[in-house]
Design a protein that fits this description.
18-stranded antiparallel barrel, 18 strands, mainly beta, Porin
Length: 454
């Protein structure tokens, strides 16, 4: 029995390495024992927590487990958006939260799945400025995913995440994330009240040979903020988006890979206020400089078609040809890791404006300071320009730092600080203004894990 399962596990690991998996803001790159990555853009999504390892070689049914946890802490936000145009009054606030959680993951010879849920209480205390009425909120988050070996050369995987929260760090923490061709603008809006966000993806991968891989991916994104009000508040654009990607990759050598792909992404802002279809053909390459150092580059033409509904003025249609380009660099040593990325592509404007030409540069540095202490420093510069009204734009930079200390085997403490500076130029109903904000947060979390079936 063991002899028959062994080759199956090995084959699953090989196919998994060829899949286009989600990139998050981990700031890591392959270590010295990792195989070369597949080329170019890979599906990228923002999740409240990282998915479990899907390594079929080292994980088996004995590693299946249930994890119970609880976290508590506070966050301070020094400045919210002005309540009216030209109002310079600061809107600082405190957030206190407590959230229990449960997580289950199971590893089978041909199937891996995981599911998690966290629900808690958030107390939103307005210090200065007008209260938004969200003083108490029962936050919720749920995640799930699977990886299934359908046949010898076929693999199906999917992920789903949902979050309802009033914590500004819930959306901010993904800002250091490295942008990719499929998600050049992970998060740029800064909702200072409660918001709902859902992300999902499903991917079917076929390994044509040891060097060739064909993949089909579908994506879904939903975002809703309670500050969406065209008359009395900042109009953070709510978004519904669906997309798909078909890609092919070929490994020329153990270090060098080439690929190509076609993407389509539909963007619906404000339930039909503006709708865009973005089509991209990308050519990708990836090179393993050293066992612990990689670089990926992609470039290709992009076509955007947009329909905008302006009350009392009518319906306007626009189209745009542009160039999509991006690069990603990663390096890692025993105690350090560096991740730097650049991208230029038409995508979601991040909430302040709708369909936008996004330019983003991101960098993250992580270091293991001691056996139980690690630290992170990250930064991001971004400029978004509307594809329909060139004078409507905003650019910002964000800096953040944080440290995590392992108090005990299952008990951790985390401290985060971030600074945001944003220049807004003719943003709809906001006008031209400068916005700065400082945020600090402290979290203590405890987790208890137990193997399933024992």
């Amino acid at each position: 029995m063991t002899r028959r399962i062994g080759p199956s596990l090995l084959l699953a690991a090989v196919l998994y390495g060829s899949c286009a998996l989600a990139q998050t803001d981990t700031g890591t790159s392959p270590d010295e024992s990792s195989p070369p990555t597949q080329p170019g853009p890979k599906p990228a999504f923002t999740y409240p927590d990282a998915a479990p390892s899907l390594d079929f070689l080292t994980s088996s049914i004995e590693n299946s487990s249930i994890t119970l946890g609880i976290s508590t802490g506070f966050a301070y936000d020094s400045n919210g958006y002005p309540n009216t145009v030209g109002n310079a009054t600061t809107n600082d606030r405190w957030l206190y939260d407590v959230a229990p959680s449960v997580r289950i993951q199971q590893f089978l010879p041909k199937l891996v799945w995981h599911a998690g849920y966290s629900g808690g209480l958030q107390i939103y205390d307005q210090v200065n400025g007008r209260s938004n009425g969200n003083s108490n909120l029962y936050s919720q988050s749920a995640t799930g995913g699977f990886l299934w070996q359908l046949a010898k050369h076929w693999q199906l995987g999917g992920n789903e995440s949902y979050r309802y929260s009033a914590n500004p760090f819930d959306s901010y923490l993904t800002i250091p994330g490295t942008p990719t061709a499929n998600n050049p603008n992970p998060v740029s809006y800064y909702p200072l009240t409660n918001f709902t966000q859902n992300n999902a993806d499903i991917s079917l991968t076929y390994q044509l040979s040891k060097q060739d891989t064909l993949a089909f991916t579908g994506t879904e994104t939903y975002r809703d903020t309670s500050t969406y009000n065209l008359v009395t508040a900042v109009p953070f654009y709510n978004l519904t988006s669906y997309g798909g990607r078909a890609s092919y990759s070929h490994q020329l050598s153990p270090r060098f890979s080439l690929g190509a792909g076609y993407d389509f992404n539909s963007l619906d802002f404000g339930a039909g206020q503006q709708r865009s279809g973005v089509q991209t053909i990308s050519f990708t390459t990836s090179y393993l400089i050293r066992p612990n150092m990689t670089i990926s580059v992609w470039i290709g033409p992009e076509y955007t078609s947009t329909k905008t509904v302006v009350p009392f003025f009518g319906v306007f249609h626009d189209s745009l040809w542009s160039t999509s380009v991006g690069a990603d660099f990663g390096w890692r040593s025993a105690r350090n890791s560096v991740h730097v990325g650049f991208v230029r592509r038409v995508s979601d404007g991040g909430g302040l404006i709708a369909t936008s030409q996004v330019n983003s540069v991101t960098g993250t540095y992580r270091r293991l300071l001691a056996y139980k202490l690690s630290a992170l420093v990250g930064g991001r510069w971004m400029k978004d320009t509307s594809t329909t009204v060139q004078s409507r734009s905003f650019d910002n930079y964000a800096l953040n730092t944080g440290a995590t200390y392992q108090i005990a085997k299952s008990l951790n403490a985390t401290v985060d600080y971030s600074h945001i500076h944003q220049n807004q130029s003719n943003v709809f109903l906001i006008g031209q203004s400068i916005y700065s904000d400082n945020r600090v947060g402290v979290t203590i979390s405890y987790e208890w894990s137990h193997p399933l079936g024992r």
